[in-house]
Amino acid sequence: MSGDRITPSFDGKIIFLTGGSGFLGKVIIEKFLRCMPNLGGIWLLVRTKKGIDPQERLPVIFQNVIFDSVKKERGLDYMMKKVRAIPGDCSLLELGMSKEDRELVANNVNIIYHCAATIRFDEPLKRAALLNTRGTKLMIDLAKECKKLEFFGYMGTAYCHLNEKLLLEKEYPPPTDPYKVISACEWLDDDVIDSITPKILGDIPNTYAFTKALSESLVMESMKDIPSVVYRPSIIIPCWNEPIPGWTDNINGPTGLLIGAGKGVIRTMYCKQDGYGDFLPVDLAVNGIITSTWNFIGNKDHSKRIWHMVSSAEIKLSWQEIVDLGRWIVKNKLPLNGVLWYPGGSMKSSRLHHNIACFLYHWVPAYIIDALLFVLGYPPVLKRVQTRIQNGFEVFEYYTNHVWDFDNKNVLYLRAKLTEEETAKYKIDGHNVDIQEYFLNCVRAARLFILKETDDTIPAARRHMKIMWFVDKFCKTTFMLLMIYFVGGWIMRMLFGYSWND
User: Fold this and answer.
1) pLDDT score at 31
2) ∠ CA 9-15-18, rounded to 5°
3) How many CB atoms are located within 10 Å of the residue 32 CB?
4) Rounded (10°) angle between helices 435-445 and 253-263
């Protein structure tokens, strides 16, 4: 078996995509534009933002460096002809679409990928439910109107059934009735919803997991009416290989951890050191979407409707290993500019130990540096940074102190179905991944594209890192001597009745 059967199966197809301006959405658009020249088109549901018309937002989206290779190979005009913006908003009734645009979509679209969602774990329940859950219901309603629909892919999450320590590729009951939650959020005031949110969530730690579980149940219910599938990706992280190794447009997940630790502002975490998360490079996620779509519409296999896009079944990387590797990279390979403290610290399995370290190494330095900045006439920043870090910890800690495993039989089945050419073009496995090189690329890309630290600043960053090493050693030595002085003096007074000063 040879050749590429996947690319031709999308010839002439029109894709309707929500969440196209987000991290995953950008990579989806780029992959289709780069690899599928005969695609009918990509239509994006785009909100009007700051008074800018959705169609006018496309050139802004295409300014991202991720599209550079497509622009160089095919040109911006090609991209603008292939991609069309449809004004709308998943948080609004009728998706905020005009009657004309709705008819246009219903009469022409072949494939729908619903990726729009708020991924903030601390999002108020009302907003999360209206965007994530009601938005999914409204997308299903639109899909039912589409006369040429061949595939509806819903982008869920592997972390929406948190009571299941081994998640199988099967349907699970929702935590409550999604229709009742939607109805309540539509007619109750925000403050009322906020007051009863803890009771509604129960043992579910955040509104993201709760509303995504509800949304998934709506898609499961729709499978009898439309050709829908559910994707359950794990934590989606920067690109592995394409189009730019290490590229991301955000500092969520491990990237934020690497930057925070590399800048010296994260010195302690309450976390199981040997626990592990499940991570999925975004380019593998996109390839999984494409190949599973082909399996449904090209291979005519309609039996597989739930897809786990995960990695921990094959690669287990503990939180401690991630932090150690990231710390080694920023110390020895790619130091960051403006480091506030030499990268160090550790993970704590004791919350008390963590809280003490957090006070000493996060809050005390933040207040001291902010006071110095205030005296020098600069606006204080460190307290605000530490507040954001602390808020992030509160959400992150639940996931770092629990471990889940995921079955992914469908993806393993699909890998065996692909030809050598298809495997190379639409890679959906982590074979031959070099973890050290991958995280090095992540730091390099974050340094360049997020922190805007160009390569010519690396020598200065290395010099600054050496200075911070001496400062760190001096402070630690001074602290130890002071502890010996005071504690030793106290012990001498308790045991012998005199201290150093007597």
Assistant:
1) 95
2) 140
3) 22
4) 70
Distance of CA 465 to the CA centre of its chain: 29
Task: Give the Cα separation of 141 and 305 in Å (integer).
Answer: 19
Q: Partners of 114 in the beta sheet? A: 18, 154
pTM: 0.89
Rounded distance between C-alpha atoms, residue 241 and residue 429, angstroms: 12
Q: How many helices (H) and strands (E) does the chain have?
A: 20, 13
Beta pairing, strands 346-348 & 268-270: parallel
- At residue 127's C-alpha, the angle toward residues 284 and 56, to 5°, is 65
State in Å, rounded, how far the first CA of the chain is from the last one: 89
- The encoded tokens of residue 81 equal 């002809």
Structure tokens at 137: 């219901």
Question: Could you give the C-alpha distances from 132 to 50, 91, 405, in angstroms and in order?
Answer: 22, 8, 25
Q: What is the DSSP string of 378-426?
A: PPP-HHHHHHHHHHHHHHHHHHHT---EE--HHHHHHHHHS-HHHHHHS
Rounded distance, CA 357 to CA 169, Å? 41
**3-state DSSP call for residue 280?**
strand
Residue 359 DSSP one-character state: I
Question: How open is the CA angle 83-33-288, to the nearest 5 degrees?
Answer: 115
Q: What is the pLDDT of residue 25?
A: 93
In angstroms, the CA 74 to CA 180 distance is 48
Question: pLDDT for 67-113, tens place per residue?
Answer: 999 999 998 889 999 999 999 999 999 999 999 999 999 999 999 99
Location of structure tokens 């001498």:
492
Counting every residue written for the chain, the total comes to 502
Tell me how far apart the alpha carbons of residues 453 and 347 are, in angstroms, rounded to a whole number.
28
Unique residue bearing structure tokens 């993201």? 208
Residue with token string 């695609």: 39
The DSSP output letter for 336 is P
DSSP secondary structure letter of residue 449: I
Cβ-contact 121, 395 below 8 angstroms? yes
Name 464's Cβ contacts closer than 8 Å, sequence gap at least 6. 335, 337, 338, 339
- Helix runs in 252-318, H state only: 253-263, 282-297
C-alpha to C-alpha distances, 115 to 3, 228, 275, 460, nearest whole angstrom: 30, 13, 29, 41
What Cα–Cα distance (Å) separates residue 300 from each residue in 225, 236, 303? 17, 28, 9
Tokens, residue 439: 């995280």
- pLDDT at 351 (0 to 100): 82
Residues 15/42, Cβ–Cβ less than 8 Å = yes
pLDDT digits (tens, 9 = 90+) for 289-319: 999 999 999 888 888 999 999 987 777 788 8
Q: Which residues of the chain have pLDDT under 70?
A: 1-2, 50-51, 391-395, 472, 476, 479, 483, 485-502
Count Cβ atoms within 10 A of the Cβ of residue 100 and give its class: 0-12 exposed, 13-18 middle, 19 or more buried: exposed
